[in-house]
Amino acid sequence: MNDVxxxxxxxxxxxxxxxxxxxxxxxxxxxxxxxNVARDGVEALEYLRRQGAYSSAVRPDIVLLDLNLPRxxxxxxxxxxxxxxxxxxxxxxxxxxxxxxxxxxxSYHAYANxxxxxxxxxxxxxxVVRSLESFxxxxxxxxxxxA
Length: 147
What we know:
5 helices, 5 strands
């Protein structure tokens, strides 16, 4: 189990409704957490690399990554993150509406840590996020942050 500390989550999502649903689902959980949001792929990479306005950004413990993003796709973000020696150890959970077998295969080929298709039903979506929280933030041991 993880030590009791605030888990830093970067949610890379452009849909305001999905952002709010995800936040709401995590609020109902018992894990102290903080969610930062990047609304497109370029912003996500700037955040993770601590560039520009994100020079003091906190390194996330986990990234929840949508594939369908403006400016740079989630798959492009995933490939760049896993190619970066300083960022590749951050677990990347692809959380997207796509159920396309090619998207799934490409994500795993690019070293996604898991792939979850978002349900369209509100209650099912809430259950998926709660399950994600239970597994990734309670059971899994996340890597320590670099000094």
